[in-house]
Amino acid sequence: GKGNYRHFMEKELHEHPAVIGDTLRQYVDPASRAVARPALPFDPATLPRLWLSGCGSAFLVGQTARYWFESLARLPTDCDVASELRYRNPPLTEGGAAMFVSQSGETADNLAAMKLLRAGGQSLVSIVNVPESSMARESDATLMTVAGPEISVASTKAFTAQLSVMACLAINFARARGAIDAAEEARLTAALLEVPEHAARILDVTDEIEAVAADILDARDVLYLARGSLFPIAMEGALKLKEISYIHAEGYAAGEMKHGPIALIDSKVPVIALCPSGPLFEKTASNLQEAAARGGRIIAFTDEDGAVALRRFASRVVVLPKVDPFVAPILHTIPVQMLAYYVAVLKGTDVDQPRNLAKAVTVE
Ligand code: M6R
């Protein structure tokens, strides 16, 4: 049951810290605090190319992982929505592998994409939350997320569990490919192991995010902006808002704003920015300033170091714990999912069963 929570989604949001911790414990060796070598049908050291596939939020996990696999592990990676991958007949690299992300393990398009890549000689790995699912059966190896049953149609804890698996793989692949040394591996693993604690702190302070929810409640459109590995999390925020609050929202790469979406900006279109301090901070902040100069209402999620500069022009700044940029996508997922939840609650929508949606999409 839901216990003391109003909705399954609220309960499942509060499970983020435990689920991330449980998932990390599966992949990180407690003694050495290094990522254990996962059982895979390929050697990450020599893999020429990796495909990632998923639908909806699972696709956005793939997009985030692509940033990690390419920038950290120097592994050429492609990522597609499964419904496109299954029909677009891409040239496949001999000896390549593919990973399929899915909470249910039953999503029809992802299963079909799997069969296509199998026929193309790729080795298949599924990252699923249900061990006896069709996708688990269809793959050469299965990496489990340890999220427990997810009841709410809007995915929450399964998403951060999937990101946690991907982050472990990124570290492991980076080490196997000689892209990082033991000290860097230890540093990244330590950052990852601190995520559950930070996640719990974010869930503790809900009033600021509830205030943001009240701010955007009457908006017709909302823009979510970010750069780098946070860009897919901006899209996740937008997807969640659409899905359960029925407000139109789009996630954009911050640098793309001036190529079109800036035309939408006025005081009625809230701009939600994921903008922690780090190498891309100045670039993102200057995009936000451009939006503010056109009357845009900027709502920024950042950390203590980013807050000072953003307060000069943002109408609201929500300060999150300062973390290594590597783990920022996992942490920023939590407030954007919470935000969608609070907006939906204020709107009085059917949070756990949004209209027209099913938990597992088993038809094409
Ligand atoms: O079970 P799956 O992870 O394969 O489901 C994929 C999507 O249908 C799913 O993530 C959907 O986008 C969610 N409702 C998002 O909250």
UniProtKB/TrEMBL annotation:
Location of the active site: 359
Subcellular location: Cytoplasm
Residue ranges annotated for the SIS domain, each copy included: 31-179, 212-354
Enzyme class: transferase
UniProt EC number: 2.6.1.16
GO molecular function, one term: glutamine-fructose-6-phosphate transaminase (isomerizing) activity
Transmembrane feature ranges: none
Keyword vocabulary terms for this entry: Aminotransferase, Cytoplasm, Glutamine amidotransferase, Repeat, Transferase
UniProt catalytic activity: D-fructose 6-phosphate + L-glutamine = D-glucosamine 6-phosphate + L-glutamate
Primary localisation category: cytoplasm
Quaternary structure and interacting proteins, as annotated: Homodimer.
Function comment: Catalyzes the first step in hexosamine metabolism, converting fructose-6P into glucosamine-6P using glutamine as a nitrogen source.
Name the UniProt record assigns to this protein: Glutamine--fructose-6-phosphate aminotransferase [isomerizing]
Portion of the full-length sequence here: 244 to 607 of 607
